[in-house]
Amino acid sequence: MPWQAIIDFQRELYLTFAGHIKAFAAGGGWLAFLAFLPMGIVFGAIHALAPGHSKSVLATYLAGSSMKAHRALVVSMALSFTHVGMAVLISLLALPLVSHSFTDAGSSPLLEAVSRGLLGLIGAWMIWSALFGHSHSHSHGEGLAVGFMAGLVPCPLTLFVMTFSILHQVVITGILFAMTMMLGVGMTLSAVALLAVLFREQLSRLLRTRPRLLAATSKSIGAIAGLILVAIAIHELIA
Questions:
Q1: Structurally, how many domains does the chain consist of?
Q2: Model confidence pTM above 0.85
Q3: Has residue 209 been placed in a domain?
Q4: 36 is in which domain, residue-wise?
Q5: Residue 79 lies in a domain
Q6: Domain assignment present for 233
Q7: Smallest Cα–Cα separation from 151: which of 89, 98, 81?
Q8: What is the pLDDT of residues 67-111, one digit of tens each?
């Protein structure tokens, strides 16, 4: 799906959600709002296809790790929960963290810098581990930490909807939207995670009869994944 089509679809859904929130605030009742609410899942899934959302970070980390599919899914859900949850927390507690400039509306420079800085450290650790460490399995806790760090950048569309619902004094509608949005984002990120694991496992199967080459390839992938994470962190911090 072309990016412009995704953007146009998101705009239409956002305006429709805003209309339902406004109607609810005016006394329209729950029925119409709840009937449309499941569209938030579609909204989240398509929104996550657009550039951003740390898809490249997620795929890079999982390709360089040794996680199985079920753990990779947990990492992807941790990322989506943090990504959307941060938008809810900021809108409720820390709106001054968010940029209100015309060209950068909905961004959170401080959290973006923290997120990329931490991911850069994870990348550096992956490089060191691949070059100088022993072979090991990436722990479940490490994967959750990566998901959390990558998700620190808040979802701008959730911020917009939450702010709109707060202005109309119906915060619960924004929170319900955020919950359905998170499910949709999680579906897309889970697909990315499974594809990354599938790629790594298929490569392992091809090299299983050559254990030395497999070990060298695994370390190389880990080092390359670390380099990419560091490069992403440096690029986005400078930008």
A1: 1
A2: no
A3: no
A4: 3-105+134-201
A5: yes
A6: no
A7: 81
A8: 889 999 999 999 999 999 988 988 887 654 554 443 444 456 666
